[in-house]
Amino acid sequence: MGTFVHAVEDEMLCSSLLPDKVPYFNAPIYLQNKSVIGKVDEILGPINEVYFSIKMGEGMVANSFKKGDKVYIGGDKLLPIERFLPKPKVAGGVTSKPMLSVEPMSSG
């Protein structure tokens, strides 16, 4: 998912290694051995250079990580980047159907 950049207060700042995915808020973040270290707190940066902060779990210390340490996320906790991009306009637009005119029936 990403690599550790530096500690910010008691959280980790990480850069994403997946250019086409964005993590869910509050998604658990793991070490390679699958132990949980915390949860995604904030997502930052431009769409082509995503960063995210990790709120550390109990007993975890952000300063104990080294620059470049990798962190992982479950594949079901990622959104496609397309969800954050503007939608292309549909060619042709909406066509309207002609309205029928209804004339009152005459009695008689």
From TrEMBL:
Keyword vocabulary terms for this entry: Nucleus, Ribonucleoprotein, Ribosome biogenesis, RNA-binding, rRNA processing
Localization in the cell: Nucleus, Nucleolus
GO BP term, example: snoRNA guided rRNA pseudouridine synthesis
Cellular compartments per GO CC: box H/ACA snoRNP complex
Gene3D superfamilies from the UniProt entry: Probable tRNA pseudouridine synthase domain
Molecular function, one GO term: box H/ACA snoRNA binding
Superkingdom of origin organism: Eukaryota
InterPro entries xref list: Gar1/Naf1_Cbf5-bd_sf, H/ACA_rnp_Gar1/Naf1, Transl_B-barrel_sf
Keyword Ribonucleoprotein attached: yes
Name of a matching Pfam family: Gar1
Family classification: Belongs to the GAR1 family.
Function per UniProt: Required for ribosome biogenesis. Part of a complex which catalyzes pseudouridylation of rRNA. This involves the isomerization of uridine such that the ribose is subsequently attached to C5, instead of the normal N1. Pseudouridine ("psi") residues may serve to stabilize the conformation of rRNAs.
Annotated PANTHER family: H_ACA RIBONUCLEOPROTEIN COMPLEX SUBUNIT 1, NUCLEOLAR PROTEIN FAMILY A MEMBER 1 SNORNP PROTEIN GAR1
Subunit annotation: Component of the small nucleolar ribonucleoprotein particles containing H/ACA-type snoRNAs (H/ACA snoRNPs).
Protein name: H/ACA ribonucleoprotein complex subunit
